[in-house]
Each structure stands twice: as structure tokens, then as C-alpha cells.
Amino acid sequence: MIGRLNHVAIVVPDLAAATALYRNALGATVSDPVDVPAHGVTTVFVLLPNTKIELLHPLGENSPIAGFLAKNPAGGMHHICYEVTDIRAARDHLLAEGARVLGDGEPKIGAHGLPVLFLHPKDFCGTLVELEEVAAA
To answer: Where is the VOC domain (predicted)?
Structure first.
């Protein structure tokens, strides 16, 4: 059901510093910062040959990742994102298997402009999982 790894998301306390670290120290290609108000984050994508790293920073005081950063002031891994070709079919299969979908269970538009869902970390070995719908290859 799941496809390739789309990205690994890392919450960072200083987006400019993290972007510079990946660009300068590691020689990576990085995107410009993009505010995603619907999710309360600003994102920068680090482009790798086989996947991406998503650098996340809170956008506003009510950002859902502000609590994560309060508990982890240095930042840290937040979630992993897998691609699926039919997000509703994937959701229905996972619900039938006993997994919990966060929020109201309906896909939201994510940072790539595509439908996404998040799965409860307690159901996936302590890891927050994002599913992103992509076109079939």
C-alpha cells in the first residue's frame, strides 16, 4: 500500500540556521521557506537524490509543533511521510486494521499542495506517520 519515502520532517528552533547548515555544511539544495498557514508551519525542503528532508518551524503562537519545540528546544525528528496513490483507500484500510487517523479523518492539503493524513504515533512504533497522495507512477 505505501510507496516511497517522501520525506523526513525535522522541527528546528531556527529555520535560517538549519537551512544554512544543510546548504553550506552538507552542500544540499534547499528550497525557499514557505508558510503553510493551514498547518501552522513554515517549511523548507532539503532536496536529496532519493527523498527530501522537511525542516519545520512554528508559524504563529498556535502552531501544532510549538509544543514539540517546547519539549525539545534543540528540535528533532517530527514525522516521516510515505506516498500513497489513493489516500482514502489507504485510510480505510488502516482504520480496518485498527490504526487511528488524527484529526477528523479527512485529508487536508499539505505543504506540496497534495492531500495528506497523519496517523497516531502509538500505532506506528512511536513514530508520527504522514501519508501523502501522489499520482500513480
So the answer is: 4-134
